Amino acid sequence: MQSPDKKKILIKEWDSKIAAVKIRKEDMNRLVMNFLVTEGYVEAAHTFEKESGTPPGVDLGAITDRMEIRKAVQSGNVEEAIERVNDLNPEILEEKQQLSFHLQQQRLIELIRQGKTEDALEFAQEYLAPRGEENPAFLEELERTMALLAFEDTRSSPVADLMDISQRQKTASELNAAILSSQCQEREPRLPGLLKLLLWAQNQLDSKAIYPRMDDLVSGTLSEPTSDVPNVY
């Protein structure tokens, strides 16, 4: 049962309050463009610029290079991605040792995925073991990765997550963020941050009122509040 101290706000009143909040169309357009640019939707950014007149604020040609690098990691072609990054800006991997290790770790995972056990062992010894000796965190990650070799069916192993496509995505996102940072761009789009802020605000409001929550962020649908608390008009 809900606390009787909470106010209950009906959806009609809630809609009225929301409608009273004025948001400039230009601000919404910049938010959309920020998402397209940061996530690398080049064609969509071009189209949106023409239709809305919103400048991207960056060279869209540079986005293509970044997306090709990201796509290479997502496809398992880590060596190609590393070469492309070094062509774009060699300081990125020189300065970010953790990112450099994760890329090499991903190369090791791909060798194991291909069943190249001897190549994997040789690669780990030459490129990853020295880094593990210098950094305990790297050593732990290396040991987890090497544990894959102990299982015929890696999908049933305790470290099966390393073989999942989401691991490639994780590495690709880390590399993408580093490239954005090197280009003095935002590492993450603003839109997801605003959605997190919305969820936080709703959690704070839950203790004070019964109101139409937005539980489905995809559709933006509001749910009608239900409780036996008297209505507040």
TrEMBL record:
InterPro entries: CRA_dom, CTLH/CRA, CTLH_C, LisH, Ubq-SigPath_Reg. It comes from the Eukaryota. Signal peptide: none annotated. Pfam families: CTLH (PF10607), LisH (PF08513). Residues 62-119 form the CTLH domain. Transmembrane segments: none annotated. This is CTLH domain-containing protein.
